[in-house]
What does this fold into?
Amino acid sequence: MAKRFVTIWFRYLKTDWFSLRQPHLKEVPFVLAAPDHGRLVITAANPPAHTQGIDKGMAVADARAIFPSLEVLDDQPELTNKLLVKLAEWCIRYTPMVAVDPEDGLILEVTGCAHLWGGERAYLMDMISRIKGFGYHVRAALADTIGTAWGLSRFGEQASIIAPGQQSEAILNLPPPALRLEAATNDRLQKLGLNQIRNIMNIQRSALCRRFGQHLLQQLDRALGTEEERIEPVVPVEQFHERLPCLEPIVTAKGIEIALQRLLEGLCNQLEQQQKGLRQAILKCFRIDGKVEQVEIGTNRGTYNAQHLFKLFEFKLPTIEPGLGIELFLLEAPKIEDVASIQEKLWETVGGLENTGLNELIDRMVNRIGPGLIHRYLPAEHHWPERSIREAVSLTEEAVVDWRLDRPRPVQLLAQPEPITVAAPVPDYPPMLFRYKGKIHKIKKADGPERIEREWWLDEGLHRDYYHVEDEDGCRYWLFRSGHYGADTSYQWFLHGFFA
It folds into this structure.
């Protein structure tokens, strides 16, 4: 299938933008200017100024000699790229492959997209009319190659559509600048009387190369389609994605749910065929007012279970504001991983961390309460309590060492031990009571001490004597005294954890 491209030309891009923000400028001849070697030079002129013979590159002084009441505004050099990027992002509703054509245009690869609008003519006209509705002067063309579409959008008829394979005939009558040549090359061609591309095509390629260089032949080949030309989309296209244009704007919650279900079915079919599992998905909703609503989900393990993924999105769908209506839904999977089909079947019969139900439960909890709030921990090769555990990278990561079971350890370990005051009959005995956060806890049972020495190769400090105690309410705590007891030395007690 031959590729198809649309090029869009914004003849008065920046002046249109100024006119949109200052409506009185639409009927007033005005230009944008910037200093250049000590003089003001026009960088853009609006249509009324252009009809007066004023154009880009003229000095402001010369332009005012032609039209004394000409209004001059300061140019914003960075504005062009910002506008083109914004317009390119808006055009994603027509195709995911949209690139900026520096200075004043966009390039869209539209292969296989036009049928969704009822054909190429309706497709192109919808694009043109909507951009014009924003207030921009625009011309566009559609062809097999970027070069042909580019030349026709600027030098051909408005909304030109060239049938597949007909680009050679379409460009014959166009002037050489339609090939996107350098200014010096255009000047030389004009001086030689080569005013149409047909004149160039009648000359031997070797002669053209010697006289005008390889660039002219390259641009001609690109226009004819004998050399492929690629574009760099403003938004990278994910390998796995699904698009759903809407014949009528969607404004209801039920409509959004139906659209999401269709997108998930298509995306999960893609993933299953290639034995891939989704780890992250982004739903983008393009509204008719140009705004984009977006929600995102993640999973702890790759999956292509459409029903499970829909439940994860279901929590976040109410946050989508359809406004006047959503005209395009786009579902992307930026993060995927390999998933073996046999593994998916085994999950139905095994338990523990491999259980599918457990994985789906964790996914629902994470997507409801937020990422970073559910953790899994593994034992670490340290006996100092603060270093004896570490956070697991994933749900399936295996422990390098076994959990220590010979000594009780609290279910909740404080990141930093908190100081407490205690009363003990003999300093080396377990305390009779302790005060924590203003409350006195009378101890009924105690076990210890368990001495834990510091890891001297990591840091220096006192050892700890730990006690496992239970108060009169049946609550159990992990307390320790820092260092040896001595009548002439001070020591401190700490609370380090809570048992279940």
